[in-house]
Write a structure and sequence with these properties.
Elements (H helix, E strand, L loop, with lengths): L22 E10 L12 E9 L2 E7 L10 E10 L6 E8 L13 E8 H7 L1 E7 L5 E14 L5 E9 L12 E8 L5 E6 L14 E4 H5 L6 E8 L7 E9 H4 L8 E4 L3 H6 L8 E10 L4 H6 L3 E9 L23 H13 L7 E7 L1 E3 L4 E3 L2 E2 L8 E3 H12 L4 E2 L6 H15 L6 E9 L6 H11 L4 E7 L31 E5 L8 H9 L2 H12 L20
Helix pairs in contact: 6-10, 8-9
């Protein structure tokens, strides 16, 4: 969890304290002189990126595997968040991969590692260091180079779809297996690999899968910057055959918007000199180009996106009898309990972004009237047709009046409530507009019982316009709850499917017991703007037209 200083970017200087703007940095990796671990052919390298989190190395991402190559240039672009105020330690580990078994992390597959900080790479722009094996031994002459580029705020991304026609045939007994590489030519004439397509087997007129790249990566946001595009015939031993190349610019590519297509002759300079009747080695066609602008959180809010707030309260027996002053649900006329403090602190900020100021309020883990059966998703106002309360005060009143009517029970199942909010969010998603985003605040005194179902529900919800905040109330051991907060690695469903976006923030209330309510709100809401932007960017939904009554921007900068 991050401090709220990194939330959203203000559109213009305001009277409020300046925000520490979160930067994203793109890292590109290449290696030279890797050790050869394979007897018959060369190593098949893959790079793992690890980040230090609370003293532990956690894998963040990994590159593709490059077959039979001791000097690989990886197409994978690693994206990391950069915080100026923190030392962020990185570790790159290179392994020799073995086919379907994936990347083994055995010592005999380890080709070397290197450690540095994000700050070092950002400051130097390009870092080349030797690779080390275990116990500080050099991995021969192996080196790794990491190049960084900051993604500027005005940066969008572009979706490109290429095909080729009548490419030269380089294979004796079958047709070529072509793939396309795009390089950006920098001011110092060096070339940066922007993208490498997949290989289309045995086809001289391949259609490659469409792909997305940031404008920063493609052309440093300069439309006239020269790009070099190369078509190769893939060779499993790493000795790819050159088919041809052409040069273009992003400016020229943009002619492919709409119904138009742009095409280039793919040329082999050697053939051009040697062969009298040489025309080309095929034609490459840009079938489609779409530009997506990247918007900020405030762009969406000012476009009228409403934040819909749902609170879910734990009424399991472990909270203690509400009539007893030791209970976490005890209503003290002079002092609100921890449930109320957390609810008010977070809800007061969210209500600024919801024009109707109506909040859904649900309970779980109690036996409820009239039949006193256990429910894991009941409306605390006991109106099954409309679980909304008027403002934060309405939620507080419904909470206080429902306590005497219910019987605290169990178990602590939260998957039903996550799924209930997800169903509403799924209906919203179908509008294909950035009109409503859902925040679910779960207040609980213990570790959830239905952990497998909860993980599954969170993975499903990560594809929808919603975020989940869990506040742990009381003094239980919440270690297992940290798993749900993806900060220590990627949360996965029981079947191993990863979340699309990290949407869960978990905070134990006791860490904020003596702090002001704003400190709790800052901490739990810190990630929300990023989550909103990530969701709508992934969906490529632009902000709607600005509405006349724009809410104030306290969520983007809780002071």
């Amino acid at each position: 969890p991050r401090s709220a200083a990194t939330m959203g970017e203000a559109p213009e200087p305001s009277s409020q304290a300046p925000l520490a703007v979160l930067s994203k940095v793109e890292l590109r990796v290449s290696c030279k002189h890797l050790l050869d671990r394979d007897t018959l052919n060369k190593s098949d390298p893959c790079v793992l990126l690890l980040m230090q989190s609370q003293g532990q190395w956690v894998e963040v991402d990994r590159s593709e595997v490059i077959k039979s190559n001791l000097n690989p240039v990886f197409a994978k672009i690693f994206t990391v968040d950069y915080y100026f105020e923190e030392v962020q330690k990185l570790r790159f580990e290179v392994y020799d991969s073995h086919g379907h078994a994936g990347v083994g992390t055995h010592d005999d597959d380890f080709l070397g590692g290197m450690e540095c900080t994000v700050g070092q790479i950002v400051a130097q722009k390009r870092v080349t260091k030797p690779l080390f094996l275990k116990y500080g031994k050099f991995a021969g002459k192996s080196t790794i180079t990491v190049i960084s580029e900051e993604i500027s705020g005005n940066n969008g991304y572009v979706e490109l779809a290429f095909r080729a026609k009548k490419l030269d045939d380089k294979d004796l007994f079958s047709k070529s297996d072509p793939f396309l590489e795009i390089y950006r030519i920098d001011d110092d004439r060096s070339e940066q690999l922007v993208y490498r397509t997949e290989v289309v087997k045995n086809n001289l007129s391949p259609i490659w899968e469409p792909f997305k790249v940031s404008l920063n990566s493609l052309c440093s946001c300069e439309e006239k910057r020269k790009l070099r595009c190369v078509v190769w015939d893939y060779d499993s031993r790493g000795k790819h055959d050159f088919i041809g190349e052409f040069f273009t610019t992003f400016e020229e590519m943009q002619k492919a918007m709409g119904e138009n297509k742009v095409q280039w002759e793919c040329m082999n300079p050697k053939y051009k000199i040697k062969k009298r009747n040489y025309k080309n080695s095929g034609v490459v066609v840009l079938l489609d180009l779409k530009i997506h602008r990247v918007y900020s959180f405030l762009d969406y809010i000012m476009g009228g996106c409403q934040i819909h707030f749902t609170v879910a309260i734990d009424f399991t027996a472990s909270n203690g009898d509400p009539r007893n002053s030791c209970s976490l649900h005890y209503i003290n006329p002079y002092q609100p309990n921890e449930y109320l403090k957390a609810l008010v602190a977070v809800g007061e900020i969210c209500q600024d972004y919801d024009s109707d100021k109506k909040f859904s309020a649900l309970g779980f883990g109690a036996r409820i009237p009239p039949k006193y059966e256990v429910s894991h998703d009941f409306a605390i106002n006991f109106n099954p047709d409309n679980d909304e309360c008027e403002g934060i005060q309405g939620v507080v009143e419904s909470y206080q009046s429902c306590l005497p009517k219910i019987q605290l029970y169990g178990p602590t199942n939260v998957a039903p409530i996550i799924s209930k909010v997800a169903r509403v969010a799924a209906d919203e998603e179908r509008t294909k507009e950035a009109s409503q985003y859902f925040i679910l605040l779960i207040l609980t005194d213990g570790v959830v019982t239905d952990m497998a179902d909860t993980r599954e529900a969170i993975v499903r919800a990560s594809y929808l316009p919603m975020s989940i905040i869990i506040v742990g109330v009381g003094n239980a051991d919440f270690t297992d709850m940290q798993i749900l907060d993806g900060d220590d690695g990627v949360l996965r469903s029981p079947r191993g499917e990863p979340v699309l976006r990290d949407i869960v923030q978990f905070v134990p209330f006791r860490e904020f017991k003596n702090a002001s309510p704003t400190a709790l709100a800052k901490c739990v809401l810190a990630e929300v703007p990023k989550q909103v932007v990530e969701y709508y960017s992934y969906k490529a939904f632009p902000p709607r037209c600005p509405q006349p009554d724009t809410p104030d921007s306290s969520l983007s900068s809780p002071q």
